Each structure stands twice: as C-alpha cells, then as structure tokens.
Amino acid sequence: MELQVIDMKESNRRETKLARLISPQKLPNHVAIIMDGNGRWANKRGLPRIAGHRAGMNTLKEIITCAHDLGINVLTLFAFSTENWKRPRWEVDFLMRLPQEYLQKELQSLMEKNIVIKTMGELKQLPRITKNTVREALQKTKNNSGMILNFALNYGGRHEILNAVKAISEKVKRGILKTEEINEDLFDGHLYTKDLPQLDLLIRPSGELRISNFLLWQLAYAELWFTEIFWPDFKKEHFLEAILDYQERERRFGGIHKL
Ligand code: V0D
C-alpha cells in the first residue's frame, strides 16, 4: 500500500514534468494508436484475455482525456482489424459488445468534452447491435466541434487502398475522370480519412515493430513511436513521452534539412 502511494506520486510528478516540456504550438494534428497487448497483459497475470480488453478500455479513457486536454485534433484508434475475425468466436463476440459497454459508460463524458465520434472500416459486416450502437454514437456526436475520435472498426489498410482503386477506376470507366487526373490528392480523397488532417504520429505499444495493415497510405510521412509497454499499462506519461519525442524529431518529408 505504502509503495503504491509513492509510485503514484512518482508517476504524477513525471506527468507534470513531461507536460511542461510540450510546446502547444508544435502539437501533432492527427495521432493514431494501435491498442495492442491486451491479451498478453492478461496472460502475464493469469487472467482471461477478456480481462485484458476491459483493462484496455480504462487506458482508452485516460488517453482520450489526455489527448483532449492537450488539444490534439484527431485521435484514430485501431479497435478491430479485418484480421481479428480469425480470433476464437467467444473473443470476437466479446469484442463486439465493447462499443456498447464503452458508450454506456463514456458517452456523457465525451459529449461534455465536445468530442465527435467517427469510424473507418467496413461497418456492414459487424453484428447488428454493434452497428446500431456505433451509428447512434455517430449521430449523437455529429454536431460537436471538438476533438475527433476516430475508431478503426473492421479496418484493413490494403482493403482501403483497393476500395479507392475500384472507386477511381469506376469513375474512369464512366468517363467522369481521366487517367491523367489521378494524383495523390485525388487518391487521398477516396480513402476513409479523406476529411481528416494528415497523419502525424503513430503509436504502437506492446513491443511489436510492425504496421500490421494499419493506415498504409497515410503512414507515408508519419513519425512512428514504439514502446514495449502493453496497452493496459500504457498511461498518460507514455502518451506525453511520445508527443515530446515527436516534437524533438526533425520532420523532413523527403527534403533535406536546411542549416
Ligand atoms: C478492445 C482496447 C472501445 C482495445 C480498448 C469492436 C481492444 C477496448 C470501442 C469502441 C475495444 C468502438 C466504437 C465506438 C465506441 C467505442 C471498442 C472494440 C474494441 C472493437 F463507437 N473500446 N473498444 N471497440 N476494446
């Protein structure tokens, strides 16, 4: 008990220290997070995987609050990938009930923060209850004007790119678009992220050094930040550390730094 109290103070002090070092005028506009390591976090403690997902939901609350307080404009979260259907049936069923559980607990606080919920991915294939809950949340928050909270649900980066290719080629076939008119901006306009600012920073916890089919096109110039910490152990101080590292990096976009 004593130790835990000391630990808390220690971590609060670190948060305050990090928060003071952040420059408000150099914040990333758009941050994405792969919320990974929930199952392994639970295994390590001899708990069922679903306990890890629940713990991951608490982290989500803390990080959303932190991003909102900092003034981040868009937070994109990888909640369910097109590959996650390969997990055991019971785990998929459990995950599909989380949006409802989450929104029941948190929608009010999201409204108070003026947060807009958005999604990207194929919602069509989700169970009806999940789809309806999510659609209701989109509807309820659509007139808010604060931070965008963008959940990637049944999302795959290659799938997103193929969809764009299909939509563009259909336009060419119908004569609405000329092949010569296809450029990066036009392509951007056919992605789920078309109305969002450019991605600045990707955070991946839990020690995996991969992109795992997330935001393939959008990651072209984004900064990447990895940590070994599992998502349920990921705290405000880690988020602030990622933002601070981002601010200390020199972004070149393929050019050379002018001395
Ligand atoms: C499990 C840790 C919130 C990562 C967080 C369906 C994995 C908890 C949502 C959510 C999940 C989604 C849409 C929405 C509101 C909330 C969520 C899934 C998993 C996959 F509009 N947490 N969460 N969705 N986890």
Draw up the topology in text:
Blueprint: H1 2-21, E1 30-34, H2 38-44, H3 49-70, E2 74-81, H4 89-112, E3 116-120, H5 128-141, E4 148-155, H6 157-173, H7 184-188, E5 201-204, E6 223-226, H8 236-248
Parallel strand pairs: 1-2, 1-5, 2-4, 3-4, 5-6
Residues 35, 38, 53, 56-57, 60, 79-80, 95-96, 98-99, 102-103, 117, 134, 137, 151, 153, 231 line the site of ligand V0D.
Task: Report on the architecture of this protein.
By secondary structure, the protein is an alpha/beta fold. It contains eight helices and six strands, in the order αβααβαβαβααββα. Strand 3, helix 5 (128-141) and strand 4 form a beta-alpha-beta unit. It binds ligand V0D. Ligand V0D binds at residues 35, 38, 53, 56-57, 60, 79-80, 95-96, 98-99, 102-103, 117, 134, 137, 151, 153, 231.
